[in-house]
TrEMBL record:
The WPP domain, residue ranges: 23-120
Protein origin, superkingdom: Eukaryota
One annotated Gene Ontology cellular component of this protein: cytoplasm
Matches recorded under Pfam families: WPP
Protein source organism: Morella rubra (Chinese bayberry)
Keywords of the record: Cytoplasm, Nucleus
Primary location recorded for the protein, binned into one broad class: cytoplasm
Alphabetical list of Gene3D superfamilies matching this protein: WPP domain
Protein name: MFP1 attachment factor 1
GO biological process: lateral root development; mitotic cell cycle
Compartments reported by the entry: Cytoplasm; Nucleus
Chain segments carrying region Disordered: 1-23
Amino acid sequence: MAEANELNPQVPHETKAPKPNFSFSIWPPSQRIRDAAILRLAQTLSSSSSSIIANSKRYASLTADEASAAACVIEEQALLAAADTAAADDVGGRIEKLGVYAKEISKRALEMLKARAAQVTAEELSPVKPESS
């Protein structure tokens, strides 16, 4: 049997794979993610073909300006609600907070549409005062 030497090693050297040099954080969402959520929400609220509005005759779409302002407020409120969630500060807890954030955005958008529809209905049903001559 041949002896192990530098030119003919019998035991291969173990090489360790380098660890990746990046990190990934799911919570809190980056400003880029928040801006994308606001933009998408504004598009949804201002589009009559969005699933929320198209599937119900109760809700009307908003103007682009109204939708943009509402989306900013809704996203901020959802972020604060999710941040207040008592979740662990591990990966599972951060994923839970992200889920709360997404659900809060949806819930608050629907609540806003319902409140707006109720306001429009109330205005339509309010009696018109006869003009005095």
